[in-house]
Amino acid sequence: MEKLLINDIKGILEKLKDVMVENRDYLIEIDGVMGDSDLGLTMSAAFTAASDLAVDYSDDDIGSLLSKAGMAMAKAAPSTMGTLMGTGFMRGGKALKSKSEIGLQDLYLFWDAFMTGLLDRGRAKIGDKTINDSLYPAILVLKEESDSTTELYPAFEKALKAAEKGVEEATAMQAQFGKAAYYGEKSRGVIDPGSIVGKLLIETFTDYFNK
Questions:
Q1: Cα–Cα dist 68/57, whole Å
Q2: What digits encode the pLDDT tens for the residues 156-196?
Q3: Partner of 37 for a Cys bridge, out of 13, 22, 32, 202, CB 3.0 to 4.6 A?
Q4: Alpha carbon distances (Å) from 13 to 85, 130, 178
Q5: How many whole angstroms separate alpha carbon 156 and alpha carbon 63?
């Protein structure tokens, strides 16, 4: 697979909804260790809203759909992570404005803008033990791959491995941001739930392309 059309984006949003609903209890569990235990509910609500919006979307503008999906997420889940997801999708959608067909280079631009949105809005840095620490290495891989191939699945398969490694590295980090930061050294060795969300995002795209 080298190109995506509007129906593929709708399919990915539906798949993201399914993945977040399936992982709701797991995200609640790991978020409860050092957080508010609401991450699973937040992600389920956010991506359900995005998928529902996509069902009724009738244009072929991929960027517009992703931006509107981001707005729906932010409205449905106005918590920290819901706002970050909304911002990421709105920024990413803006990068793909007016495109009715996208490839690997476009997907890199989407994720690069997504990442910039998270860094701007969330104010957490790479290395603070957050979602950034699984997404950032995956996006670096997509940048490299987009210079040498147009095939989506193998590029995202490599990005997923980078995201998984990012989760492992984030687990070993001391939290510097959010409620987890209050735990100091005790946060080392504890899975960061945000990094899991980042991995799930890349994993869902990868799975969609594996067909």
A1: 9
A2: 999 999 999 999 999 999 888 777 877 778 879 999 999 99
A3: 32
A4: 13, 23, 28
A5: 20
Residue 86 Cα distances to 47, 90, 184, angstroms: 10, 6, 29
Domain boundaries, the chain: 6-209
pLDDT 10s digits, 17-64: 999 999 999 999 999 898 888 999 999 999 999 999 999 999 999 999
Listed residue (11, 138, 130, 5) closest to 62, CA to CA:
5
Cut 0.90: pTM above it: yes
β partners of residue 102: 4
Residue 185 to residue 205: CA distance in whole angstroms: 34
Distance CA 85, CA 48 (A): 13
- Judged by DSSP in three states, 5 sits in coil
What are the helix (H) ranges across 77-131?
Answer: 80-95, 104-122
